[in-house]
Specification:
The chain is an alpha+beta fold. Helices cover 50% and strands 11% of the residues. Helix 10 crosses helix 12, helix 11 runs antiparallel to helix 15 and helix 14 packs antiparallel against helix 15. The chain binds adenosine-5'-diphosphate, 5-S-methyl-5-thio-alpha-D-ribofuranose and magnesium ion.
Length: 434
């Protein structure tokens, strides 16, 4: 597929239906063998619940697969918003690359059809989307360890700390064409929530004043524009690009990361920030999901401990890789092979991680604000039927996000962030703002 012509829809492309898909897949030996039986007997259902694509589950007598197909437009909005099919190319490339660095943590790619913009992959069962489980108050004991392992492995091994300079530049080039997906992020996360835009929506009238105050907040607009520039220009590592809890499928013992169609070589904090933002949004949303006040307190504590475990796990795993697997052309090992130099290197590594923590908090804040004021919302909050309760949760999240974005240096540790979340969760946001 020509990845440099984003408007191109191959003549051979056709959006699939449960009726047409078996005929297409019947030609692929690996899929025929895996599903078994006659293709006309395969059972197909469309299960896509994301904002952009079609996703089918296909089952035969011997097994099942998942099939994801890009549509030439944004599913959430409709055909009025065209979107290049090339995103399937970048998604399959990212899945293959992530599997190399974090084996067993993504669905295995079985087949890629560029003309159909279609990826056939391992069917994750009995996994559920983590966001949905968290709305139901389900604890996932292994997710923080798994997710911090995934983030540390994929980010470290695609950075200049691990890669030869020339290979890293090829990686940048491989994903440089994913411009339309980056453009969505640049618009709907870093720009539109801070201005009047037809794409924006929020719980109205409850949040009208808060939304207006954010649109008029120059300090915040400077802070978010600083983050936007970092997103656009910091080619640190191959990032997933949309690492929210809707891109994580879990069981009690297994964690898988799906849906890297926004992948490109960008700032690492965008991925770690996405994880923390979505856990914080779920934390604030619990007021709308508990059967009686306080009934989800233990779950709230678990969510906050998950945030701490994720960041602390990421921090130690990333540093461990840097100490023991740094083969990249940045920070050449030959310059740091005596004890004094190693002490200086260790100090610099801590400063690097502190900078990454600052970025993480800023990007987390941007992601919290966009999910409340921008185009695409989270069901953690959207599923709260009582608009006053929903607005209370949203206002608390917005207020916390503002402090994270404006003053990340106020938060010296992840525990300072979770303690602040506790405090924001106890305020009456409308009483406080009048
Ligand atoms: P989108 O890019 O439109 O957001 P996703 O990749 O997030 O699409 O997939 C949408 C939904 O399809 C997921 O929420 C999940 O329920 C289901 N899904 C996606 N991939 C798989 C898979 N490999 N196995 C099982 N279900 C999957
Ligand atoms: C127009 S797409 C809106 C959002 O859906 C995806 O999941 C990304 O988060 C994107 O920003
Ligand atoms: Mg998705």
């Amino acid at each position: 597929m020509n990845t440099h012509d984003p408007a191109r829809v191959p003549e051979t492309y056709a959006p699939q239906t449960p009726q047409s898909l078996p005929g297409l897949l019947a030609n692929v030996a690996v899929i025929r063998d895996l599903l078994g039986g006659a293709p006309e007997r395969w059972v197909v259902e469309e299960v896509g619940d994301g904002n952009l694509n079609l996703v089918f589950k296909v089952r035969g007598p011997a097994g099942g697969i998942a099939v994801k197909q890009a549509l030439p437009y944004v599913r959430l909005v409709g055909e009025s918003w065209p979107l290049p099919l090339t995103r399937a190319h970048f998604e399959h490339l990212a899945l293959v690359r992530q599997a190399r660095h974090a084996p067993g943590m993504t669905p295995a790619v079985l087949h890629y059809d560029a003309d159909m913009a279609l990826i056939a992959m391992e069917l994750l069962e009995p996994h559920v989307i983590m966001r949905r489980g968290m709305i139901d108050g389900i604890v996932y004991p292994s997710f923080a360890e798994a997710l911090s392992t995934f983030a540390a492995a994929t980010l470290f091994h695609t950075s200049d700390l691990a890669m030869a300079a020339a290979d890293k530049k090829v990686l940048v080039a491989d994903f440089a064409g994913n411009t339309a997906m980056c453009g969505i992020t640049e618009d709907v996360i870093f720009t539109e929530p801070y201005m009047v835009s037809d794409n924006n929506r929020w719980t109205s009238p409850q949040l009208d004043d808060l939304a207006a105050s954010i649109r008029g907040d120059s300090e915040l607009k400077v802070a978010v524009s600083r983050l936007k520039l970092k997103f656009m220009s910091s080619a640190e590592a191959l990032i997933h690009g949309d690492l929210h809890t809707g891109s994580i499928m879990v069981t009690q013992t297994d964690t898988r990361i799906i849906d890297p169609e926004f992948a490109f070589v960008g700032p690492m904090g965008f991925d770690t920030g996405a994880v923390i933002a979505n856990l914080l949004l779920n934390y604030f949303s619990q007021i709308g999901h508990e059967r009686a006040p306080g009934a989800r307190d233990a779950y709230r504590r678990w969510v906050l401990s998950g945030i701490e475990d994720f960041w602390n796990g990421f921090h130690s795993r990333f540093l461990a890789r840097w100490r023991h697997e740094a083969k990249g052309d940045a920070w050449p090992a030959a310059l740091f092979d005596d004890p004094v130099a190693r002490i200086h290197l260790a100090g610099e590594q801590e400063r690097y991680m502190a900078g990454l923590f600052r970025d993480t908090l800023g990007f987390a804040a941007a992601k919290m604000i966009r999910r409340i004021l921008g185009l695409a919302h989270n069901i953690d909050l959207e599923h709260i039927a009582d608009a006053d309760v929903r607005a209370t949760a949203e206002a608390r999240a917005l207020m916390m996000a503002r402090t994270l974005m404006i003053d990340p240096d106020n938060f010296r540790s992840i525990e300072a962030v979770t303690a602040a979340a506790c405090r924001w969760n106890a305020i009456d946001p409308f009483g406080a703002t009048g």
